[in-house]
Amino acid sequence: MGKIKRFIDCYIPTETCNLRCHYCYITQKRRFNAVIASFTHTPAEIRTALSKDRLGGTCLMNLCAGGETLLSQDVLPVVKELLREGHYVMIVTNGTISHRFDEILQWEEELLKHLFIKFSFHYLELIRLKWLDRFFENVNKMKKAGVSFTVEVTPSDELVPYIEEMKGVCLKNLGALCHITIARDDKTHGIEVLSALSWDDYKNTWNEFDSALFEFKTRIFKVKRKEFCYAGAWSYYLDLKTGRLKQCYKGNVLGNIYEDISAPIPQKPVGSHCPLPHCYNGHAFLALGDIPELPAPTYAEERNRICADGSEWLQPEVKAFMSSKLYETNKQYGLWKKKVIALNQWAVQRGIRDTRIYRLFHKA
Ligand code: SF4
């Protein structure tokens, strides 16, 4: 079984949804604009642009829209091609569009072994729309077919009175408790927690779910990262429609993957100048190893659950792959190269072009 070579977080430009969660990031930023993604490149072209040869090995691709990822009919054909290429693919979804899961059921068994679905469990909306049964049918349909998955709740204050009820529903339908993420307030400069509770109360309230995901997220939330981060070399943020490749959410733009399909993917890490106030999605980037010296669980540990009947949410191949770290397959830089990159990143963030010394180092 392979190990992860790169992690690519792919943005799907769908900015609408069939749910209306009050904590949703597109609601907060008033970006419910009825746009459903359609790709200008064919699935085969996207696969070529993201080939294993070009990327140096087997990668983990995360496909996530601003709204509901599976609203767009263009997404699953791309997922299928990326799986055929040999990559592992994650889809983030609210789990309510049943015919998309029926479509996945038609795929070859070998492809399903490398597929992972992150079901966002929007409990109050599912109750309002009477879609709770539909949601769990879709989750269990995927489990039965051998697809790996996780179920995750965004812990909002409105959900607190329903904690016991929600736990019971999860145990009954999933055989285990759901995982817990952190609700962000993207309107705030510091990307704060979206809650009226104090940080300690928030942690105590949601710790009840004994979620490894929540445990790591609360450990790194609000902590400014100053270590050397390999995002931009080992991981990327990619707009899958336009091909615009960035180091990370707020890093530099590195180029366009569709412009010269034979060109190597640039490797220009952020280094020790992360522009964000904290690494709010470090449960992926940091758990996968972008900062090698930072103690972190494996991504598999954050996503898996062992059910009452002994079955697991992650299937063996996905579990093994998600247990590997980026620093196992990529060479770390020496001290001087790190210093030059840090200097260069500092300069680029101030509008100064790549320094000559950096370009020399990069050729080396
Ligand atoms: S520390 Fe986190 S947010 Fe910052 S560049 Fe690295 S991966 Fe991205």
Classify the beta-strand content into a percent band: 5-15%
State the strand order across the main sheet.
6-5-4-3-2-1-9-10-11
Please name the CATH topology of the largest domain.
TIM Barrel
Rg value = 20 Å
CATH architecture verdict of the largest domain: Alpha-Beta Barrel
Q: Which ions, cofactors or small ligands are bound in this entry?
A: iron/sulfur cluster
Helix content: 25-40%
Pattern of helices and strands: EHHHEHEHHEHHEHEEEHHEEEHHHHHH
Shape: globular
Structural class, by secondary structure, is: alpha/beta
**Total DSSP E strands:** 11
Total discrete domains: 2
- What's the tally of helices? 17
CATH class bucket of the largest domain: Alpha Beta
How does this model look, in words?
By secondary structure, the protein is α/β, with parallel strands linked by helices. It folds into 2 domains: 6-237 and 272-327, TIM Barrel (Alpha-Beta Barrel); 333-364. Helix content is 36%, strand content 14%. It has 17 helices and 11 strands. The protein has helices at 25-28, 43-49, 52-55, 75-85, 98-105, 109-112, 123-129, 132-144, 163-174, 199-207, 212-220, 282-285, 299-303, 316-322, 326-329, 335-349, 356-363, and strands spanning 6-12, 59-65, 88-93, 115-120, 148-153, 179-180, 184-185, 192-193, 235-239, 244-246, 253-256. The strands form 2 sheets. Strands 6-5-4-3-2-1-9-10-11 form a 9-stranded mixed β-sheet, with helices on both faces. The chain has a two-stranded antiparallel sheet with strand order 7-8. Strand 10 and strand 11 (253-256) form a beta hairpin. The chain starts with 5 loop residues before the first strand and ends with a helix. The mean pLDDT is 93. The chain binds iron/sulfur cluster.
